[in-house]
Amino acid sequence: MLEPMGDHLKGGLDIVFIGFNPSIRSGENGHHFANPNNRFWKILHESGLTPRKYQAIEDATIVDLGYGLTNIVARPTKAADEITKEEYQIGREELKKKLLHYRPKIACFVGKGVYQEFSGKRKMDWGVQEESVVPGIVEFVAPSSSGLVRMKVEEIVEIYRELTELKDRFT
């Protein structure tokens, strides 16, 4: 069994990106969004959030840009459906504690399913959520960057551009 994945967090970040959990590839090499089929780093760059396309091995440096990385569950799996209800329950509470402790301006949930597990809400639109689970932190729901997502990458990038604009209003 692979070790749980560590976070890249510090106080006062502009955005914390929150995924379901690490892939097996990420767990094996210790870097977030490391599966070559995952488009996370490409989406961040094309949406204007990063000045260039970062590589997964550079994930720890993203805090220098004002961004953090964490997951609702730290255990790597092949697919999100392998995560147990108990793991989600524990992860939900741990994530709330992290957000309260680090107080990022924006919590970006990388996938509706991640936000559903965190918030308990079933229906939501992309973008800023009307009511935050953690008061004082803007909660933003963005499409998953997984290669399994059927949306075109251009459509996903457009939604992440809204996140870029939102971040720019804070800075």
Automatic annotation (TrEMBL):
GO biological process: base-excision repair, AP site formation
InterPro entries: MUG/TDG (IPR015637), Uracil-DNA_glycosylase-like (IPR005122), Uracil-DNA_glycosylase-like_sf (IPR036895)
Keyword Nucleotide-binding: no
Residue ranges occupied by any Uracil-DNA glycosylase-like domain in the UniProt entry: 12-163
SUPFAM superfamilies registered for this protein in UniProt: Uracil-DNA glycosylase-like
GO molecular-function term, one example from the UniProt record: uracil DNA N-glycosylase activity
Keyword Ribosomal protein: no
Keyword line: DNA damage, DNA repair, Hydrolase
Protein name in UniProt: G/U mismatch-specific uracil-DNA glycosylase
Species per Swiss-Prot/TrEMBL record: Mesobacillus persicus
